[in-house]
Amino acid sequence: xxxxxxxxRPERLQCVKDALRDIGINGxxxxxxxxxGEQMGLTFTTRVGEFVVDEIEKxxxxxxxxxxxxxxxxxxxxxxxxxxxxxxGRIFIIPVERxxxxxxxDD
Length: 107
Description:
By secondary structure, this protein is an alpha+beta fold. It has 2 helices and 6 strands; from the N terminus they run βαββββαβ.
């Protein structure tokens, strides 16, 4: 199993959720986060001068999937999260050693 973690634009969340559901990926954790990457924030110019917002709001979507579903999951996220502009986000794939259901203790 792998944890597919994607940090995406908030406005793309619903499209990504719907697309993942359509390919059979239903379980996910969604967290609202802030941060920055290569984009290094946004610079705004007003009448009183410039200011930089260096922590951009993003959404982190995490889903544990079977190994054979990783590429399909990544491709779906990329296709539906992409806007073509800097700041579209990143996808991380992390090995999951084990998953235990709290209610029953089953693997």
